[in-house]
Amino acid sequence: MPLNLSLNLATVRMQWKLPQAVEAAARHGFAGVAPWREMVQETGIAQTARICLDSGLRVTGYCRGGLFGADGRENLKAAIDDNKRMIDEAAAIAAECIVVIGGGLPPGSRDLPAARAMFVEGLAAVLPHARDCGVMLALEPMHPMYAADRGCITTLREMLDIADTLGNDGLGIAVDTYHVWWDPELRVQIDRAGKRIVAHHICDWLVPTKHMLTDRGMMGDGVIDFPAIRRMVEAAGYSGIQEVEIFSDYWWGRPGDEVLATAVERFKTVCT
Ligand code: ZN
Hints:
The protein is α/β, with parallel strands linked by helices. The chain has eleven helices and nine strands. The radius of gyration is 17 Å and the shape is globular.
């Protein structure tokens, strides 16, 4: 019985390049992988598609798109074009979705509402292409500590409002425990998301957190109640695969096989 667990390849990006990481994921019993664009481009699109196909693993996500307003309005068109190329790449590697994040403020800007508006504008501009290609865009709200530099859309409520505005077709929701665990509306908004949930990412919140980006925790090492969130997600109608995604200087410093063995063990003992 394969684990209902996918490996986001960022988790082992310091240890392995894409071919070795996919091979290791299969060896440890993962059912899928989620590659990042830099790793895919380094390996090549066709070669990545071949490696994933031959591995028998699902490609549960392609990271990551969106960020439409991050370089300012003068670069919005370029960001839209780049996202369209990414949609083509996702189709080529048979990724089940692209993870889409808000993007931060443009350099020098203090206008968060404008950044949010550009995200919606960019998303609306690429959505027809995503629909044509059959590529799902998984909207991922990010923890508010990233609002300035990575993710100006910070709550499930905001992402669901945007999806409602744009008509939902072709849009899904990524529930990443690291980003949403603190939200007082978590249960209500997961319930509202319902069948729109297409991805469930897992990663723990460490206390204290020593670095905003690279001190994420292995499940069980922090304060997130994984079974409680999983029950909410399942009650909403998503019983699909979970994806472990850990940016961590600590885990990047450990042998890759130790990281994967630990993730599998914690998934079995902490997350269900
Ligand atoms: Zn995520």
